[in-house]
Amino acid sequence: xxxxxxxxxxFSYTEAGVEYFERRQLKRFAGVWSLWxxxxxxxxxxxxxxxNFGLLAGGFGGLLAATAIVAVMxxxxxxxxxxxxxxxPHTGGAYSFGRxxxxxxxxxxxxxxxxxxxxxxxxxxxxxxxxxxxSIANDLTGMNIAAPVWWALFYGVFVGMNILGVELTFRFTxxxxxxxxxxxxxxxxxxxxxxxxxYALDVVPEAGESVWFPxxxxxIAAALPFAIWFYLAIEQLPxxxxxxxxxxxxxxxxxxxxxxxxxxxxxxxxxxxAGIAPGATVVGASDNPLFLAFQTIFGSGMGASLLALVAxxxxxxxxxxxxxxxxxNIYSLSRAGYFPHWLSVTHPVRKTPHVALxxxxxxxxxxxxxxxxxxxxxGSVPVGAVLLNxxxxxxxxxxxxxxxxxxxxxxxxxxxxxxxxxxxxxxVVAGVIASVTLVFLFVNPxxxxxxxxxxxxxxxxxxxxxxxxxxxxxxxxxxxFAIAHRSA
Length: 488
Known about the structure:
CATH topology: Amino acid/polyamine transporter I
Shape: globular
Mean pLDDT: 85
Strand order of the largest sheet: 1-2-3
Strand content: under 5%
Low-confidence stretches: 1-8
Number of domains: 1
CATH architecture: Up-down Bundle
Order of helices and strands: EEHHHHHHHHHHHHHHHHHEH
């Protein structure tokens, strides 16, 4: 690295040499279908697991209302990101938006929140995978295999696949996303004859409340984090910018087609999984809600178990693609110096961020273990639900920062290959809903320990950057673009 330092506003930049970036190269491969599959695949597990906890939090009506509110937020956000991503086509994604609009601190806060989201989300999903695989193994063989064994197995396989190369990553993403949608289609069609409002509205209401809203209006607020699970992580698409052939053309298409696909899927899943036996109360407490639905449609035994095994594909689709996301997120923040530089080194042959991928997996697995065996301070709360709220905590902070960034970037004189028809209004509405959701994460006392733990993680990251990271910044592509368009 060159010793030439540039100090501005107490941030120290180093102009890295050619060797630094040669050790941190990525490879272009993705087209519009790859980006669509990356967005839909990252989220599709939300139709297999996680959303259902909202049935107990708010009842069917409360979760339905929360889903509608959250859908509005994601539409506004996706249109905003669709405008920003081709204008700032860097792997940094959300961090680069925040950096350009609000300076280094804005970039770091956005990137840190997003890294928490993407490290914790695979941990949530692997808990769901463990729930499905445990039930299937017990149903078919009578064996009871500890959940962490399943977690370690799936982390090993899919981190390894992401390390092997971006071509394999995206080809598998397209395949597994279509397979997951095919499985959901079988479920939707099979569930229609079994639907009954009696099942959907069987959550026992509190005194004075209705079967539609058994916990009143507060149930809508409590259901918001679980409704987010129908859509969380589609915003990861801009992280693929430096591996996309034409991000200025393909990124908006991938984002907007993706959110349309997910809205349709969320409505069908909410109605048809909650509205058939064994009913919303049982489904709302399950780690494998779709398995229960398959048992209702096809009966217990081998057939339902094999279909549930195939249903794991939906969880795998998201698990695989969000491992990709945290790898690129950690890579971009490290390359720019926000995180330790060694985290951004890429594989010399595969050109994948193998160090970031392994580090994120270790962190996610460790958090899942802590929650799983932390009964002394969490009680009997499902580990998946705790992790889900922790992931949403990071996500909504990142959403708020990105929407603020959009409003500020709108005032910059930069090329915009795509312009959001919703303008600043769409971003403001999305930001307000995200802010309300952040507040309501603290409503349910059962999940507060996890949220507090995530807040401590976030505070630790801020302290790291204040005392260390901001003095070791690198003029990466995101930083050079931001400095060229702002004085910070």
